[in-house]
Amino acid sequence: MSVDQKTVRRIAHLARIAVTDEDVPHLQGELNAILSFVEQLNEVNVEGVEPMTSVTPMTMKKRQDGVTDGEYPEKVLRNAPVTEDNFFVVPKVVE
After folding, report:
1. 63 belongs to a structural domain
2. For a Cys-Cys bond, which of 19, 25, 62, 70 suits 12, CB 3.0-4.6 Å?
3. Which letter does DSSP use for residue 51 in this model?
4. Under a CB-based contact definition with an 8 Å cutoff, are residues 3 and 31 in contact?
5. What is the CATH number of the domain that holds 18?
6. What is the pLDDT at residue 12?
7. 13 is a domain residue
8. Which Pfam family would be a valid example here (predicted)?
């Protein structure tokens, strides 16, 4: 895939970058070099390679997922302007 001068101007417009007519050929060469490198990456055989999140092996830290009431509902309910039976009272928004 190669980029022509019209495409360079379009990319510059979409990126909101001011590009002079003198800069277009240089940018065209740079974009074509980048795309050439990306095409080379398509030739790499990645069959059997597991996706990774880092270059060093690591595992996610996990905690037990347990439901709790916070163990201090009185403190939490003190923030509410209106409560009823240990619940927040909110205005009805759906008819």
Report:
1. no
2. 19
3. P
4. yes
5. 1.10.20
6. 95
7. yes
8. GatC
Give the burial string for 3-25 (b: 16+ CB within 10 Å, else e).
Answer: beeeebeeebeeeeeeeeeeebe
Burial of 60 (0-12, 13-18, 19+ CB in 10 A): exposed
What predicted TM-score, i.e. pTM, was given to this entire model?
A: 0.50
In a domain, 23, yes or no: yes
Interior CA angle at 87 toward 81 and 91, to 5°?
Answer: 55
CB 5 within 8 Å of CB 20: no
Strand, coil or helix: what is 29? Answer: helix
Angstrom CA distances, 16 to 9, 23, 25, 31, 91, stand at 10, 15, 18, 17, 46
Residue 10 confidence (pLDDT): 96
Name the domain count of the chain.
Answer: 1
- pLDDT at site 79: 87
Domain that holds residue 13: 5-41
Mean pLDDT by 10 residues, the chain (95 residues): 92 95 95 94 90 81 82 86 90 86
Question: Alpha-carbon distance 56 to 43, whole Å?
Answer: 25
